Amino acid sequence: MPPTLNAVERRVLGVLLEKALAQPQYYPMTVNAIVAACNQKSNREPILELDEDTVWNTLEVLRAGGLVSRLLPGGASRVERYKHEARERLGWEKPQRAVMAELLLRGPQTLGELRGHAARMYPFETTEAVSLVVDGLGQCEPPVVATLPRQPGQAAVRYAHRLYPTDEWEALQQSAAPGSAIATPTADDYAAPAAGLRAEVDELRSEVELLREAVGKLTRRLDAWGA
Predict the structure, then answer these.
(1) How far is 79 from 177, CA to CA, in rounded Å?
(2) CB proximity list for 150: less than 8 A, separation 6 or greater
């Protein structure tokens, strides 16, 4: 049975899925690194401002649900680190994890948007390849991905994950229903190349944040040795 997750739980799980695929050199992740990734201004919708206590508590909730595991300090690592258990708990392979990470971090998207945004995590060769993954996730029992109502003027269907609580899912469907908002045509055929470039820039920004954290830790250790 897929879990039902609140907004913070979705963000934390999405970050772990994303970084494991896109930046394995920084994975598993420390709490501080997860906080920084949750609060990124790029590749995130909505933008959140989470503190360390909130993220730590959320990790513990996800750990209790079997979606996250904790690695205790040992070897070269002096702090606890966390990793997701999506493959073991939910059976998601890399393509499924890339799609779900995008839906958890950005919200509903078209197939073209998913292909472009997920390129930093998994290289889907065609939009049809994304469609096969989405269809598979939608045929689970119960489904973990579903289509949203298409608004007038929309050129492509948008897909959303089904890990929302019931009230959030109903509100999302209502907001996407015909007539609920002024719809504009999408350029789905051109979304993948542009989104891929934006994803590369966003990934570089995220890596800079992680490098800053690593340099800060190293500086503090050097200061401690010199004291």
Answers:
(1) 47
(2) 157, 158, 178
Taking the whole predicted model, whether its pTM rises above 0.70 is answered as yes
Which positions of the chain have pLDDT values less than 50?
A: 181-186, 188-193
- Exposed (0-12), middle (13-18) or buried (19+): which is 170, by Cβ within 10 Å? exposed
| Distance between CA atoms of residues 26 and 214, nearest Å | 10
Query: Cβ(99)–Cβ(6) under 8 Å?
Result: no
| Residue whose tokens read 């051109």 | 190
Residue 154 confidence (pLDDT)? 76
Please list, in sequence order, all residues whose beta carbon lies within 8 angstroms of the beta carbon of residue 91, skipping any fewer than 6 positions away. Answer: none
How many C-beta atoms surround the C-beta of residue 152 within 10 A?
A: 8
Greatest CA separation for the chain:
67
Distances from the Cα of 125 to the Cαs of 113, 119, 131, 191, in angstroms?
13, 9, 11, 14
Q: Which helix (H) or strand (E) holds 82?
A: strand 81-84
Q: What domains can be seen in the chain, in order of their start residue?
A: 7-220 (1.10.10.10)
Q: What phi and psi, each to the nearest 5 degrees, are found at residue 197?
A: -65, -45
CA angle 123, 127, 129 (to 5 degrees): 65
DSSP 59-75: HHHHHHTTSEEEE-SBT
